[in-house]
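User: I'm putting together a teaching handout on how sequence relates to shape, and I'd like one worked example. Could you take Sulfatase-modifying factor enzyme-like domain-containing protein from Johnsonella ignava ATCC 51276, show the sequence you're using, and then write out its predicted structure as C-alpha cells right after it?

Assistant: Happy to. First the sequence, then the C-alpha cells directly below it.
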Amino acid sequence: MNLIEYIKENMILIPQGNEIIRDFVDPVKWLSSDYKMSAPGTNKEKIMKQKLVEVQSFLLFKIPVTNELYNYVMEMDYDITTKNCPVVNVSWIDAVNFCNNLSEKLALEKCYILDSVSEKIIVDNAKNGFKLPTDAQWQYACRGRATGYRYGNIEEIAWFEQNSEKRVHEVKTREKNDFGLFDMIGNVWEWCFDLYDEERYGNYRIFRGGSFASEERACGATSRRKSFPEFRIDDLGFRIAKNNLEGIK
C-alpha cells in the first residue's frame, strides 16, 4: 500500500458551516458511579438541550477506516477478503491509538497524549496529525448540505437492518452525500472524540450514524449512542479527521 497516496485520495475537505447539536437528557442521574455497570434511574420525560456550533473547515476521510488500512497501520494480519470492509470490534482507545500510529508513520505530530497520572487522553488540536472527528464535525459532515434526518433515501445511502443481511458490507457500495462522503449512515457506527456527558456518564464516548444491525429509525445524521472507551462490538468502527493538508506531501 502507498500510504500517502491512499490517504490523500480518500481525504475530503469539509467547508466551514454551522450545526445545531441536540441532546435529550434524563433528568435523574444514573444510580451507580461505576460507569461500566450503570443503569438509568428514571423513565421520566427527557429534557432537550441544544446548541449552535460553528464548525471550521477540516479534512475527513470519505470512508470508514477499512480492515486493509487499519491492519496495515497497526501491522496486524487480517482476512484479505474483507480488506474493503470497515474495521469493527475496535474500541475508542483502539481508534485513538490508530490515529497516533498513522500520524507517526507519515511523520506528522501526534494529536493525542496519554496523561499517565489521570489515565485520561488529552487532545492537542494544534498538532498536524490525525484524530477522530468531534461530535459536531461528524454531524455537520454527515448532513452534507441536507437539512433532514438523512441525506437521501435510506435504501440508497445505507446498509441497515432491513437490507444488510445482518452483515457488514464493503465501503462505497451505497450513494455518497453532497460532500462526497460514503457510509456516514448505516454499515457501522462511528466513534467520535467527545465525551457524552462527563458529569452524568463519566468517561462514556459518543458514536454515531447507525449500522448494518440497526433499525431504520436509528440510522440518521442526529442518531447518537454512547459507551465506555474500551467497548468493542461487531458493528462499531470509526473514520479519521485532520485539520488541514499540512504535512501530507
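A couple of points you could highlight for students: Residues 181 and 212 are 17 Å apart (CA to CA). The two ends are 16 Å apart (CA to CA).
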